Queue: 2 jobs
Job 1
Amino acid sequence: MTELTELVIEGGNTLTGEIEIGGAKNSVVALMPAAILGNKVLIEKVPNISDVTNLKLILNYLGVKVTEENDNFLLDMSNIENKPFEEAQVSKLRASYYFMGAFLARFGKCEIYHPGGCVIGERPIDIHLNGFRKLGADIIEEDNKYTIIADKLEGANITLKFPSVGGTINIMIAATTAEGITVINNVAMEPEIDNVIELLNSMGAKIKREDHSIIIEGTKELHEGRVRVIPDRIEAGTYIIAGVLAGEKLKINNVNANHLTALMDILKEIGADIEIHDNYVIASKTEKLLPISVVAEPYPGFPTDLQQPLTTLLTTASGTSYITETIYENRFKNVEYLNQMGADIKQINDKQIMIQGPTNLTGSKVVSTDLRAGACLVIAGLIGNGITRISSIEHIIRGYEHLTDKLTKINANIKIV
Ligand code: EPU
């Protein structure tokens, strides 16, 4: 395929002014499928990202009417149909797997394909499927297709072998209408999950979190609901890191710093100039940063989704830093391109990289191999000397709304060509 669009960044500008964080990608992509359990649902603060566009197309295909007013989406399920999904729709994004749980809860049946998403590891969905089986579903797997059927869903005691974000949400959605009580243990603790609980409970579900468990009292009576998408902690973290690299009192608005404790702790430890306020953070370029060892792990640990943007920051720290990735098998594809730009990063093994700093980055022609690798290269381009050209930007627009507009507004020199 010919490369049609590139991001072109001229590095070296000071980032200043204010930037507004949108609703969380990993929340909204679960909220939109979960909404189909009700009849009318209002979702506020929906981010303008291509994952949302693709979900909207799937909802339209199912007969759901989506009315948009600014960043509020009203979903009307009056004419929803139980239809098999098409492979092309589902393979566009990871979160299409949430239709499995939602269809099971609403129709007791789902015919769907394996989800798409960033190629950053194997990403099986066995935890989701085992959970559905425990609730009473039968699953036929053929090639890439799943046919999941449950004449009746019954509450169960389910312990996840790993606190999977998608698995936790998907099983919880399915269990919403199951008969009796479901207890899911060893669940993921990410705040996006609580956002989904908030929506489902507003629709009449009876779900509560107790530490590492989620307890669901099944109910068939779901009605209308509403929810506001929480601020995107990964988008916020990315711009906070950009502020520490190139900001002058860069104000990042609509941030819930409580969701970013692990990042804030690390930034403080390396000496970054950040001020944390109730709803915003101010970040400024810091001349001398200390090196650090960081482990990306499930929430509330340091998020894997910020590991690649943090790598760019650590190329400027004085000394040897380490990043250990424990969630995915293949999330260091950004390293090759950072090194091409002048970084000194060695991959020690599948799980760990060593970053020797400080190094100066120089603009280069690089590839956004996945969403957060793209974000890492965008901020590298912002501090790189000269021009950086990033291709495969479709990955970046899956998760960063109005990227060029937001960055231009804070004085970056960036455009899509
Ligand atoms: N895993 C299994 N079996 C499963 C599910 C997961 O082995 O059934 C493994 C995965 O292979 C992976 C690990 O468990 O190694 C974590 O996967 P998890 O299920 O927690 O992740 P996910 O639901 O596929 C969501 C986000 C990711 C984010 C992770 C971790 C969505 C749509 N995606 O993925 O977001 O990295 O949680 O926080 O919510 C991103 O935004 O860049 C992104 C990749």
Job 2
Amino acid sequence: MPEKQKINLLWFGNNLRIRDNESLFNVMQQQLPFLAVYIFDKSFFNSTQLSFKKIGKFRAKFLLQTVSDLENNLKEKKIPFLKKLGKTEDIFKQISKGFEVEKIFCQREWTKDEIELENQIKTIFPDVRWVKSYSQLLLEPDFVKERLDKIPLLFTTFRQKIEKDFKIRNEFDSEHLVYNKSTFDLKIKSDDITLKTLGFEDFETHSSSAFPFTGGETEALKRLNSYFFETQNISQYKETRNGLIDAEYSSKFSSWLGNGSLSAVSIYHEIKKYEAEFGANDSTYWLIFELFWRDFFKYTSMQFRNKIFQRNGISNQEHKWQNNENLTQYWIDGATNSDFINANMLEIKNTGWMSNRGRQNVASYFCKILKQDWRIGAAYFEEMLLDYDVHSNYGNWMYLAGVGNDPRSRTFNAENQAEQYDADKKFRNLWLE
Ligand code: FAD
């Protein structure tokens, strides 16, 4: 039998970018023979949890656009890329028939679905060396460890400990490296993957969507440049961030951050560049403050692991949650007693997007007024959100349900909130009419 060719794999997950990609940087810098792989794992599109899909049509389309952009960018760098639809385990089995895999480079994950995928691969390649990167984080784990023995329950404690003289690493210069290793004969072919093959009908973006963008690193960097340097809207971020209508009230970076087509470290350095040119103010600081929130939920889940998915959450608070399918359906359909809640729920149903103000209100309403199990609401968001991120979604839901990082367990008064943030009813009219 001919000897199998030795290669390395760059297994893409939620790091779908060329710029500031540590794994890509490592394989390119060492000029290793490697194959880049992305798998649309069928189980994420077929199976359900609490009767919701893990990925719904909005994020599926956004992901297809993202991977297509990545494919083009890798092609320009002459990097072989394999895009497959199937079970992760089966695709790796196919690869193992043609190649002896030495190392797998990927982003480090610690939540259950992602660990499950890794375990599938470990059964195929038990002896492979894993080289994992923490590239989804803004703050480096060593730095956080130095400042904190363990992650505190309160965000303010976390922020105060890390904010003094903090350092953010430089970007990895993966974008500019040139790869000149000769390629190899790849017998497996990429799949032609469309919304239809993923199980969805094609659809157009709703004309009133506050997120009228497409997926992919190219679009992410365009948005970053536009929000910062072209419009300078970042300089008003703190005043506009509670907005509800149109794209400009907040950065809209979350969807690209979610699948890693944009890195938080790149955003940070662009903010610093912006501040050097146009001046720092409360708003430019506040965007960094919000990115700390993002990291806070990531470090929280790293510490508490699967507790973030459990009924009593990370703070072990017992509540009498109910599971009334009718009430959940009224909430989803925008048919509750509150027009502000209804407008927000119709927004997410029609666009896959909802503002932060809206999310806080509808989550609070679901848990505190309807008294439904917060995990049902979180699972619905997981299916619907364009920007779904396991740490931010479950972290924020636990927070609002009173089983997470906020021991005070407050309830939002939707009517007061509507009066404060939508006094002229423009937002409600947009979705209710
Ligand atoms: P901006 O206001 O421009 O903020 C910049 C970035 O800071 C965001 O892109 C995000 O990465 C981070 N950020 C801001 N607010 C938060 C926050 N509260 N928690 C964590 N990070 C934050 N965000 C997600 O990215 N994915 C989710 O699945 C998600 N689920 C949520 C569920 C609930 C119930 C709630 C209340 C919030 C959730 N958020 C989630 C947080 C927040 O609503 C979104 O990050 C934000 O609205 C995205 O819009 P933006 O990018 O314009 O944010």
